[in-house]
Amino acid sequence: MDAFAGLLDGPRARGAFLIRSILAPPWSLRVEDRAPLTLVAMVRGTAWVVPDRGETVRLRPGEIALMRGPDPYTVSDDPATPVQAVIRPGGCTTSPAGEDLCDAMSLGVRTWGNAPDGAAMMLTGTYQVGGEVGGRLLSALPASLTLPAGAAGASLIPLLCDEIVKDDPGQEVILDRLLDLLLVAVLRAWFSRPEANAPAWYQAQGDPVVGTALRLLHDNPAHPWTVASLAARTGVSRAALARRFTEMVGQPPMTYLTSRRIALAADLLRDSDATVGAVARQVGYGSPFALSTAFKRVHGVSPQEHRSARA
Q1: Are 10 and 130 in contact (CB under 8 A)?
Q2: Residue 132's pLDDT band (boundaries 50, 70, 90)?
């Protein structure tokens, strides 16, 4: 597993909020759901994405926008159109005055809007929870980004259009995986663009030495790695690996491994009932005490306190 794939384990959809919006002008949606990551694909018509902070962007058919939360933003037919609906946490939709609009604007299975034949149609997928592993990935993204039509995931959008309106058994799982595929395609395309200023860990994956070391650390983070054992596997001296890894990734190999292990532990504590001892073994610590010490040094709380706070 490469570093990019490992980081995508964080924002993996689990019952993601997915909806198709069909709208006739004038329309304006204020998004205040505080979601860590939202993807919007414009199927037909146009829309304006207006963040509270940052540049206003126009979305055309086939274009995809990605918004990193929790900051609110507005999507509308025109930046001057007054807000007509507010999207709140959990996908609850109200008028600006707080009146519930979910039933009044329902147009069928996972479809919402003000007109069944509206000129604008867009698909929205929202990741509700950000994992600790995904934190490194999310922090590498701008508050919002836009990709032109055909740049990434173009073949997935028609498939998602077809599947989003179905209510068959297992449909939620299918939609989650389609959203994940689209997200991976968008992120990969974004990081390949010059303006993305891709983070050091992403660029380092192409290096024959550091890229190999990163894959080894991500494939088996519980292994008792040392700089010497990593150097032996990558075919360079210990000093050469340490220097090259630090220059390209921005931190020494063992520091990177520690952050990876602690992030994995945080996710396991959040998403499973495994004991602290079991989590410690899974991420490469010899005892619950060793994990607790390292975890508290990074997060300022013990693993148990972290789990309680998340609950």
Answers
A1: yes
A2: very low
